[in-house]
Structures are given as structure tokens and as C-alpha cells.
Amino acid sequence: MVDTDFLTHTFKNGIRVIHQYTDSPVAHLGILINAGSRDEEEEEHGLAHFIEHSVFKGTKKRKAFHVLSRIEGVGGELNAYTTKEETVLYSTFLSEYYDRTAELISDILFNSVYPEKELNREKEVVVEEINSYKDSPSELIFDEFEELVFDGHPIARNILGTKKNLRKFNRDIILRFIENNYHTDHMVISSVGNINFSVLVKMLETHFGHVESKVREYSRAKFDNYIPKQKTVKKDTFQSHCLIGNTAYNIADPKRIPMVFLNNILGGQALNSRLNLALRERRGMAYNVESSYTAYSDTGLFSVYFGTDRENLDKAQALVQKEFDLLRNKKLGGVQLSRAKKQLIGQIAISTESHEDLMLANGKSLLIFDKVDPLRVIFKKIEALTAEEIQEVANFVLDKNQMSKLIYQ
Predict the structure, then answer these.
(1) Which end of the chain is more exposed for a tag (fewer CB within 10 A), N or C?
(2) Domains of the chain
(3) What does the pLDDT look like over 317-328, one tens digit per residue?
């Protein structure tokens, strides 16, 4: 398939490739796998993230030091991350090292040996990561909120796992998870850089085309039993931390774009968001206030977070609810709507200036939708949004009776 912005190819084993050309001397290459923490069994909690850590600890032909030095020794960077639904290995490097990088990522993904000595050492690293996380209530509250909202479902569990489970992990458990969840028809190689597409495809064919085809034959258990809950936890902190939210639209829902738009107005990155103006700029009640929207394959989550002095907690909650009610009860005016569209379009355009982010975004879109909308198509969809659509989404997601709440006090 040819597009003015990118090119795609599919190998016989089902692994897909997407490439976007740039004339920058710096290139980005990654492989995205449609498997994350929600695909774990209960006794595997934390395993997807642990594999992401352990995958660099040696292959059939490389020790851990040689894995790390292969790209970093020529000034590049090698990295990975895990989400609830994806595992990603990726690298940033000078374009002349495309083949070196592709070969290394393939070697890491398909030939890692997970030596027990290295696994035991890495367990201690992850334990420290868990400890560090628990020391940060403004981060911890997000995971505990998902546990509250998605109670009893695999998507509820935090990505890091538990120290108890971590101690049980071994090479056999890792290999079993990979066998059960890493399928070639759910892998995408994404590239942004200065290389001819036919040269890239031939190179990737050498390193990834030989991998045996493995097709996914199961579907994830859907989340569909949301019950609003409220919980207050006593914490020895200087501030009260509050998260308020509701389930929202899944990643394939047509209302996802108006939801992104609504979230940006309410508490997006810009300092002129409604919540930032109401709580921080006008009243000095919060240093950090934000809203977020995460779309999963079968559900979504909208939430508002803020930290404030205990004496201001009730007032701050009332102000948040006031902004919710305004968006539900009053349609955006023409000028407001136009300004908000320009702001979101500008933010999206600026985000693509990071070629690493572009590589990851292209890869995720192809992985999930089997297509990537060029920017002009995305902008056209935003321009087409109406005040009625935004109000409809607001009335669904910002319904007071459907809100869950978690407070650290």
C-alpha cells in the first residue's frame, strides 16, 4: 500500500511493517506487540513488565553487556516499555546503523535466553521500582483508581505486579507467556528515518521474515460490568490527592475523537484548560490538576486528578463538578469551539515533531486499526466536530451518578 505519508508491507508470517521517510540523520525503529499486563493470568501478575526488563539480559549469541553496547556503543539508545495492552522494544540511532539495529531487536525478541542469574538480579531492580512507585502517591493513585474502576478484571491490575509474584518468576514461566501471547499477526515493526523503503523491507525480511508464523486464536475477556465506587484511604502525606472518573469509549468507538477533544478542553496539557484555570490560576488551590483519557481495546477510562491542601479538598471537588456541569448543560459557542479545535490541531501537529513519538504512534495505529490516518485526515475529523457531539459525550462521561472517586487523605 502506498500513501503520501508512509508505506506498509506485510511479511508471510503476518508481521507488518510501516515506514515514514524523513531526511534526518537520526532514525527510529521499534517493534510493537499486542500483549501487555491485561493478558497475564492472576499468578503471572507483573510478568509482561518483567519480561520487558529481562529481554535485554542476553541472547543465544550475546551476553547482556554486548546487547546493551551494540547500539549504545555507536551513540544510539535502546529502550522498551509495557502498557496494559502492548509491549514495545525500540531504538534511536544514526541512519547508517539501520541494519545493526534491526538485527539486534530481532535477536533480543526471538533469541533471548533469560539466564536465571540475570533474572534474579533484575528482580531486585523491579523491587526497587515498585518501592519507588509506592513512595509517590501522585502516581500510585492512578493505578489504585484503575483497580477500583475495573475491579475483578485483568485490566484492573497494575503493570509492575507484586513482590510476591516477582519472586516466583523463572525462565520457564517467561517462555510460556511469550509462547501464549506473542503472535506474529499481532506484531508491527515501525520505522521513521532516512532509508529507502525497498531497502528497509529487504533488510527486515532478513531479520524478521524467517520467524515462524504464529496466529492468535483467542480474544481478550471484555470488561462490561462497571459499578461506580468511592473510596478514601488514609495516607501520611502533606496534600490530599483526589481522582474522579468514569469509564469511557474504547479505542475503536467513533466517539473517541470527541472524547479526546472534550478531555483537552477540560484538563489537557495547556495551561488554559478549564480545570487549570478554575483550580490553579484563579484560586491557587492546586499545583497540579489534569484530566486524562485512556482508550483500551474494549473500554476506556476518563479521570481528573488534583492534589490540594486538606482544607481545600471539598471546595476543589465542587469546582471540578461545576466544570463538569457546565460542559453537560451548556453547548460550546462557535468561538469557543473554533479555538479549541485550533488548539488541539496545533498540539497534535507539534507532537509529530518528535520522530520517536511519530514512530510509536504510527506503529500503534497499524497494530490496532491496520491503517494510519495521515494528519490531514485527523485534522479534518477534528474540524468536523460539532458542539452537539461534544455535549453528548460530556453528558455520557461526566454524569455525576456514574463517577468513581478515590481520595488519599
Answers:
(1) N
(2) 7-208 (3.30.830.10), 230-408 (3.30.830.10)
(3) 999 999 999 999
